[in-house]
Amino acid sequence: MKLSQFKFKLPEELIAQHPVGERDEARLMVVNRKDGTIEDHSFKEIINYFDEGDLFVYNDSMVFPALLYGNKEKTGARIEVFLLRELSAENKLWDVLVEPARKIRIGNKLYFGDDESMVAEVIDNTTSRGRTLRFLYDGSHEEFKEELYKLGSTPLPFYINRDSAQEDTERYQTIYARNEGAVVASGAGLHFSRELMKRLEIKGVGEAFITIHSGLGNYREIDVEDLTKHRMDSEEMEASQVLVDKVNATKDAGRKVCAVGTQVLRGIASAVSMGGHMKTYSGWTNKFIFPPYDFTVTDALVSNFHLPYSTMLMMVAAFGGYDLVMEAYKKAVKEGYKFGVYGDSMLII
Protein backbone atom coordinates (compact mmCIF):
# COMPACT_ATOMS: atom_id res chain seq x y z
CA MET A 1 0.00 0.00 0.00
CA LYS A 2 1.05 3.57 -0.73
CA LEU A 3 0.53 6.69 1.38
CA SER A 4 -1.31 8.40 -1.48
CA GLN A 5 -4.02 5.72 -1.34
CA PHE A 6 -5.20 7.19 1.97
CA LYS A 7 -5.91 10.64 0.59
CA PHE A 8 -9.47 11.94 0.56
CA LYS A 9 -11.01 15.39 0.63
CA LEU A 10 -12.19 16.26 4.13
CA PRO A 11 -13.99 19.61 4.52
CA GLU A 12 -12.68 21.44 7.57
CA GLU A 13 -16.19 21.90 8.96
CA LEU A 14 -16.51 18.12 9.37
CA ILE A 15 -13.69 17.99 11.93
CA ALA A 16 -15.44 18.04 15.32
CA GLN A 17 -14.24 20.87 17.57
CA HIS A 18 -16.38 19.96 20.60
CA PRO A 19 -17.87 16.76 22.07
CA VAL A 20 -21.52 15.89 21.44
CA GLY A 21 -24.12 16.56 24.14
CA GLU A 22 -24.04 13.09 25.67
CA ARG A 23 -21.33 10.49 25.14
CA ASP A 24 -23.53 7.88 23.47
CA GLU A 25 -25.47 10.30 21.25
CA ALA A 26 -22.95 10.36 18.40
CA ARG A 27 -23.83 8.86 15.03
CA LEU A 28 -22.74 5.30 14.32
CA MET A 29 -21.98 3.91 10.89
CA VAL A 30 -22.12 0.11 10.81
CA VAL A 31 -19.95 -1.54 8.14
CA ASN A 32 -20.58 -5.22 7.49
CA ARG A 33 -17.57 -6.93 5.90
CA LYS A 34 -19.53 -10.05 5.05
CA ASP A 35 -22.22 -8.51 2.86
CA GLY A 36 -20.60 -5.13 2.15
CA THR A 37 -23.49 -3.12 3.59
CA ILE A 38 -23.10 0.29 5.23
CA GLU A 39 -25.86 1.45 7.60
CA ASP A 40 -26.52 4.58 9.67
CA HIS A 41 -27.44 4.35 13.33
CA SER A 42 -27.06 6.07 16.71
CA PHE A 43 -24.17 4.96 18.91
CA LYS A 44 -26.62 3.70 21.54
CA GLU A 45 -27.72 1.06 19.05
CA ILE A 46 -24.31 -0.62 19.07
CA ILE A 47 -25.73 -2.98 21.72
CA ASN A 48 -27.94 -4.56 19.04
CA TYR A 49 -24.90 -6.05 17.29
CA PHE A 50 -23.60 -8.03 20.26
CA ASP A 51 -24.93 -10.93 22.28
CA GLU A 52 -24.34 -12.71 25.56
CA GLY A 53 -20.79 -14.06 25.70
CA ASP A 54 -19.29 -11.47 23.37
CA LEU A 55 -16.46 -9.32 24.75
CA PHE A 56 -15.52 -5.65 24.44
CA VAL A 57 -11.84 -4.82 25.02
CA TYR A 58 -11.22 -1.24 26.18
CA ASN A 59 -8.04 0.78 26.68
CA ASP A 60 -7.97 1.92 30.31
CA SER A 61 -5.10 4.38 29.85
CA MET A 62 -5.69 7.79 31.39
CA VAL A 63 -4.81 11.06 29.65
CA PHE A 64 -2.91 13.45 31.89
CA PRO A 65 -2.75 17.29 31.62
CA ALA A 66 0.40 17.30 29.54
CA LEU A 67 0.41 20.82 28.10
CA LEU A 68 2.23 23.51 30.09
CA TYR A 69 3.40 27.05 29.43
CA GLY A 70 6.53 28.38 31.07
CA ASN A 71 8.79 31.41 30.91
CA LYS A 72 12.46 31.23 30.04
CA GLU A 73 14.89 32.67 32.58
CA LYS A 74 16.22 36.20 31.92
CA THR A 75 14.30 36.78 28.66
CA GLY A 76 10.86 35.75 29.96
CA ALA A 77 10.06 34.21 26.56
CA ARG A 78 6.87 32.12 26.63
CA ILE A 79 7.67 28.46 26.00
CA GLU A 80 5.17 25.67 25.31
CA VAL A 81 6.16 22.45 27.04
CA PHE A 82 4.44 19.18 26.14
CA LEU A 83 5.07 16.44 28.70
CA LEU A 84 5.55 13.13 26.89
CA ARG A 85 6.57 10.71 29.61
CA GLU A 86 8.18 10.58 33.02
CA LEU A 87 11.69 9.14 32.76
CA SER A 88 12.60 9.04 36.46
CA ALA A 89 10.27 9.60 39.40
CA GLU A 90 13.19 9.84 41.81
CA ASN A 91 15.02 12.51 39.82
CA LYS A 92 11.89 14.19 38.43
CA LEU A 93 13.08 13.79 34.85
CA TRP A 94 10.63 14.19 31.97
CA ASP A 95 10.85 13.69 28.23
CA VAL A 96 9.20 16.75 26.67
CA LEU A 97 8.65 18.68 23.45
CA VAL A 98 9.24 22.43 23.49
CA GLU A 99 8.13 25.23 21.18
CA PRO A 100 9.85 27.32 19.98
CA ALA A 101 12.66 24.78 20.22
CA ARG A 102 15.32 27.15 18.83
CA LYS A 103 15.11 29.26 21.99
CA ILE A 104 15.90 26.45 24.40
CA ARG A 105 19.41 25.19 25.16
CA ILE A 106 20.93 22.80 27.67
CA GLY A 107 21.29 24.59 30.98
CA ASN A 108 18.34 26.94 30.47
CA LYS A 109 15.81 27.21 33.28
CA LEU A 110 12.05 27.44 32.76
CA TYR A 111 9.60 28.88 35.31
CA PHE A 112 5.97 27.75 35.56
CA GLY A 113 2.89 29.14 37.30
CA ASP A 114 1.79 32.67 38.14
CA ASP A 115 4.26 32.75 41.02
CA GLU A 116 6.92 30.86 39.00
CA SER A 117 7.26 28.43 41.91
CA MET A 118 7.80 25.41 39.64
CA VAL A 119 11.23 25.42 38.03
CA ALA A 120 12.76 23.05 35.49
CA GLU A 121 16.24 22.82 34.04
CA VAL A 122 17.04 21.59 30.53
CA ILE A 123 19.62 18.81 30.84
CA ASP A 124 19.55 17.11 27.42
CA ASN A 125 18.55 17.57 23.77
CA THR A 126 16.93 14.41 22.43
CA THR A 127 15.57 15.62 19.06
CA SER A 128 15.22 18.93 17.24
CA ARG A 129 12.12 19.67 19.32
CA GLY A 130 12.63 17.25 22.20
CA ARG A 131 14.34 17.96 25.50
CA THR A 132 14.83 16.30 28.86
CA LEU A 133 13.79 18.46 31.80
CA ARG A 134 14.73 18.04 35.44
CA PHE A 135 12.13 19.62 37.68
CA LEU A 136 13.57 21.25 40.80
CA TYR A 137 11.11 20.44 43.57
CA ASP A 138 11.77 19.54 47.19
CA GLY A 139 8.50 17.83 48.12
CA SER A 140 7.43 14.21 47.72
CA HIS A 141 6.79 12.68 44.32
CA GLU A 142 3.03 12.70 44.96
CA GLU A 143 3.09 16.41 45.89
CA PHE A 144 5.25 17.17 42.86
CA LYS A 145 2.89 15.42 40.44
CA GLU A 146 -0.11 17.14 42.00
CA GLU A 147 1.51 20.57 41.58
CA LEU A 148 2.72 19.79 38.07
CA TYR A 149 -0.71 18.67 36.90
CA LYS A 150 -2.36 21.77 38.38
CA LEU A 151 -0.24 23.76 35.96
CA GLY A 152 -1.09 21.60 32.96
CA SER A 153 -4.05 21.55 30.62
CA THR A 154 -5.67 18.90 28.41
CA PRO A 155 -3.51 18.17 25.33
CA LEU A 156 -6.05 18.41 22.52
CA PRO A 157 -5.12 17.16 19.02
CA PHE A 158 -3.61 19.65 16.57
CA TYR A 159 -6.78 19.70 14.43
CA ILE A 160 -8.94 21.13 17.23
CA ASN A 161 -8.54 24.86 16.65
CA ARG A 162 -9.13 26.16 20.15
CA ASP A 163 -7.56 26.13 23.58
CA SER A 164 -8.60 23.39 25.97
CA ALA A 165 -11.61 24.26 28.11
CA GLN A 166 -13.30 22.95 31.24
CA GLU A 167 -15.45 20.56 29.18
CA ASP A 168 -12.30 18.80 27.94
CA THR A 169 -11.14 17.89 31.46
CA GLU A 170 -14.02 15.40 31.64
CA ARG A 171 -14.86 14.67 28.02
CA TYR A 172 -11.33 14.10 26.65
CA GLN A 173 -11.19 11.06 28.90
CA THR A 174 -13.02 7.73 28.90
CA ILE A 175 -15.20 6.94 31.91
CA TYR A 176 -13.11 3.82 32.62
CA ALA A 177 -9.66 5.44 32.44
CA ARG A 178 -7.50 4.48 35.41
CA ASN A 179 -3.84 4.00 34.37
CA GLU A 180 -2.18 7.35 33.83
CA GLY A 181 0.21 7.76 30.92
CA ALA A 182 -1.49 8.76 27.65
CA VAL A 183 -1.39 12.10 25.88
CA VAL A 184 -3.87 10.98 23.20
CA ALA A 185 -7.39 9.90 24.16
CA SER A 186 -9.26 6.93 22.71
CA GLY A 187 -11.86 8.58 20.49
CA ALA A 188 -13.81 5.32 20.18
CA GLY A 189 -13.90 4.90 23.95
CA LEU A 190 -15.29 8.40 24.54
CA HIS A 191 -18.71 7.26 23.26
CA PHE A 192 -19.29 4.73 26.05
CA SER A 193 -21.52 6.12 28.79
CA ARG A 194 -22.17 4.49 32.16
CA GLU A 195 -25.72 3.74 31.05
CA LEU A 196 -24.61 2.03 27.84
CA MET A 197 -21.97 -0.05 29.62
CA LYS A 198 -24.57 -1.10 32.18
CA ARG A 199 -26.94 -2.16 29.41
CA LEU A 200 -24.16 -4.20 27.81
CA GLU A 201 -23.46 -5.85 31.18
CA ILE A 202 -27.15 -6.73 31.66
CA LYS A 203 -27.22 -8.29 28.20
CA GLY A 204 -24.27 -10.49 29.16
CA VAL A 205 -21.65 -8.77 27.01
CA GLY A 206 -18.33 -8.94 28.83
CA GLU A 207 -15.64 -6.31 29.29
CA ALA A 208 -11.86 -6.51 29.55
CA PHE A 209 -9.11 -3.91 29.67
CA ILE A 210 -5.76 -3.49 28.00
CA THR A 211 -3.42 -0.60 28.78
CA ILE A 212 -1.81 1.29 25.90
CA HIS A 213 -0.38 4.74 26.57
CA SER A 214 -1.05 6.49 23.28
CA GLY A 215 1.49 9.12 22.30
CA LEU A 216 1.95 11.89 19.74
CA GLY A 217 3.30 9.36 17.24
CA ASN A 218 -0.35 8.80 16.29
CA TYR A 219 -0.32 12.27 14.73
CA ARG A 220 3.19 12.26 13.31
CA GLU A 221 3.21 12.94 9.60
CA ILE A 222 4.22 10.01 7.41
CA ASP A 223 6.94 11.20 5.05
CA VAL A 224 7.37 8.10 2.87
CA GLU A 225 5.15 6.91 0.01
CA ASP A 226 6.06 3.26 0.60
CA LEU A 227 4.34 2.36 3.88
CA THR A 228 6.71 -0.54 4.54
CA LYS A 229 9.39 2.08 5.22
CA HIS A 230 7.45 3.99 7.88
CA ARG A 231 8.44 3.40 11.51
CA MET A 232 5.88 3.94 14.26
CA ASP A 233 6.83 5.52 17.57
CA SER A 234 6.90 2.99 20.38
CA GLU A 235 4.10 3.01 22.95
CA GLU A 236 4.05 1.35 26.35
CA MET A 237 1.40 -1.33 26.79
CA GLU A 238 0.33 -4.11 29.10
CA ALA A 239 -1.86 -7.12 28.35
CA SER A 240 -2.58 -8.73 31.70
CA GLN A 241 -3.38 -12.34 32.53
CA VAL A 242 -6.96 -11.31 33.38
CA LEU A 243 -7.39 -9.81 29.91
CA VAL A 244 -5.77 -12.77 28.16
CA ASP A 245 -7.93 -15.29 30.02
CA LYS A 246 -11.14 -13.43 29.10
CA VAL A 247 -10.17 -13.04 25.43
CA ASN A 248 -9.09 -16.65 25.05
CA ALA A 249 -12.22 -17.96 26.76
CA THR A 250 -14.36 -15.83 24.44
CA LYS A 251 -12.55 -17.19 21.37
CA ASP A 252 -12.85 -20.79 22.60
CA ALA A 253 -16.60 -20.28 23.07
CA GLY A 254 -16.95 -19.07 19.49
CA ARG A 255 -18.06 -15.59 20.55
CA LYS A 256 -16.97 -12.18 19.22
CA VAL A 257 -14.07 -10.07 20.53
CA CYS A 258 -14.56 -6.35 19.79
CA ALA A 259 -11.66 -3.90 20.00
CA VAL A 260 -12.70 -0.42 21.13
CA GLY A 261 -10.32 1.81 19.21
CA THR A 262 -7.39 1.33 16.86
CA GLN A 263 -4.91 1.33 19.75
CA VAL A 264 -6.69 -1.67 21.28
CA LEU A 265 -6.63 -3.34 17.86
CA ARG A 266 -2.90 -2.71 17.68
CA GLY A 267 -2.30 -3.85 21.25
CA ILE A 268 -4.14 -7.13 20.73
CA ALA A 269 -2.20 -7.73 17.51
CA SER A 270 1.04 -7.12 19.44
CA ALA A 271 0.18 -9.88 21.92
CA VAL A 272 -1.10 -12.59 19.58
CA SER A 273 -0.17 -16.20 20.19
CA MET A 274 -0.97 -19.40 18.29
CA GLY A 275 -4.47 -20.55 17.39
CA GLY A 276 -6.23 -17.19 17.49
CA HIS A 277 -5.36 -16.60 21.13
CA MET A 278 -3.59 -13.88 23.10
CA LYS A 279 -0.61 -14.05 25.44
CA THR A 280 0.39 -11.70 28.23
CA TYR A 281 2.66 -8.84 27.26
CA SER A 282 4.29 -6.00 29.17
CA GLY A 283 6.59 -3.59 27.41
CA TRP A 284 6.61 -1.48 24.27
CA THR A 285 5.09 -1.88 20.83
CA ASN A 286 5.87 -0.08 17.58
CA LYS A 287 3.69 -2.34 15.45
CA PHE A 288 2.48 -0.58 12.31
CA ILE A 289 -0.64 -2.10 10.78
CA PHE A 290 -1.80 -1.32 7.25
CA PRO A 291 -3.54 -3.38 4.52
CA PRO A 292 -3.38 -6.25 3.98
CA TYR A 293 -3.24 -7.72 7.49
CA ASP A 294 -4.60 -10.95 8.95
CA PHE A 295 -6.36 -10.41 12.29
CA THR A 296 -6.73 -13.68 14.18
CA VAL A 297 -8.18 -12.46 17.50
CA THR A 298 -10.30 -9.37 16.90
CA ASP A 299 -13.72 -9.95 15.29
CA ALA A 300 -15.18 -6.42 15.44
CA LEU A 301 -13.81 -2.89 15.72
CA VAL A 302 -15.20 0.40 17.04
CA SER A 303 -13.35 3.43 15.71
CA ASN A 304 -13.94 7.11 15.07
CA PHE A 305 -13.50 8.66 11.64
CA HIS A 306 -9.87 9.60 11.12
CA LEU A 307 -8.10 12.22 9.07
CA PRO A 308 -6.49 11.59 5.65
CA TYR A 309 -3.06 9.92 5.63
CA SER A 310 -3.33 8.94 9.33
CA THR A 311 -1.99 5.67 10.70
CA MET A 312 -5.36 5.16 12.43
CA LEU A 313 -7.16 5.24 9.09
CA MET A 314 -4.68 2.67 7.79
CA MET A 315 -5.43 0.34 10.69
CA VAL A 316 -9.17 0.68 10.11
CA ALA A 317 -8.67 -0.08 6.40
CA ALA A 318 -6.57 -3.11 7.29
CA PHE A 319 -9.38 -4.46 9.46
CA GLY A 320 -12.39 -3.58 7.33
CA GLY A 321 -10.81 -3.99 3.92
CA TYR A 322 -9.40 -1.05 2.00
CA ASP A 323 -12.12 -0.70 -0.65
CA LEU A 324 -15.04 -1.04 1.76
CA VAL A 325 -13.59 1.35 4.34
CA MET A 326 -12.75 4.02 1.76
CA GLU A 327 -16.29 3.67 0.39
CA ALA A 328 -17.63 4.16 3.93
CA TYR A 329 -15.44 7.25 4.39
CA LYS A 330 -16.73 8.69 1.11
CA LYS A 331 -20.29 8.19 2.40
CA ALA A 332 -19.34 9.74 5.75
CA VAL A 333 -18.09 12.91 4.08
CA LYS A 334 -21.13 13.10 1.82
CA GLU A 335 -23.56 12.67 4.72
CA GLY A 336 -21.83 15.04 7.11
CA TYR A 337 -20.41 12.64 9.69
CA LYS A 338 -18.01 14.33 12.11
CA PHE A 339 -14.34 13.36 12.11
CA GLY A 340 -11.66 13.30 14.80
CA VAL A 341 -11.53 12.41 18.47
CA TYR A 342 -14.79 14.26 19.24
CA GLY A 343 -16.45 13.01 16.05
CA ASP A 344 -18.81 10.20 15.13
CA SER A 345 -18.10 6.49 15.20
CA MET A 346 -17.88 3.43 12.98
CA LEU A 347 -18.50 -0.20 13.89
CA ILE A 348 -16.96 -2.81 11.61
CA ILE A 349 -18.39 -6.30 12.02
Structure notes:
The protein is of the alpha/beta class and 349 residues long. It has two domains: 3-63 and 169-348, 3-Layer(aba) Sandwich (QueA-like), CATH 3.40.1780; 67-151, QueA-like (Thrombin, subunit H, Beta Barrel), CATH 2.40.10. The protein is 20% helix and 27% strand. The chain has seven helices and 17 strands. It has helices at residues 141-151, 166-171, 194-203, 241-252, 262-270, 311-320, 322-334; strands at 27-31, 38-42, 55-59, 61-63, 67-72, 78-88, 93-99, 109-112, 118-125, 130-136, 179-182, 206-212, 235-239, 257-260, 281-285, 300-304, 345-348. A nine-stranded mixed β-sheet has the order 2-1-17-16-14-3-12-13-15, with helices on one face. A six-stranded antiparallel beta barrel has the order 5-6-7-10-9-8. A hairpin with a 5-residue loop joins strand 8 (109-112) and strand 9. Helix 6 (311-320) crosses helix 7 (322-334). The two termini are 23 Å apart.
Q: Based on CA inertia axes, which overall geometry fits?
A: globular
Q: Into which percent range does the helicity of residues fall?
A: 10-25%
Count of alpha and pi helical runs: 7
Total domains: 2
The CATH topology name of the largest domain reads QueA-like
- Supply the CATH class of the largest domain: Alpha Beta
H/E series: EEEEEEEEEEHHEHEEHEHEEHHE
Supply the CATH architecture of the largest domain: 3-Layer(aba) Sandwich
Largest sheet: 9 strands, mixed
**What is the strand arrangement across the widest sheet?**
2-1-17-16-14-3-12-13-15
Specify Rg, calculated over alpha carbons.
21 Å
What low-confidence regions span 5 or more consecutive residues with pLDDT below 50?
Answer: none
Protein name: S-adenosylmethionine:tRNA ribosyltransferase-isomerase
Keywords: Cytoplasm, Glycosyltransferase, Isomerase, Queuosine biosynthesis, S-adenosyl-L-methionine, Transferase
Pfam family, one: Queuosine_synth
EC number: 2.4.99.17
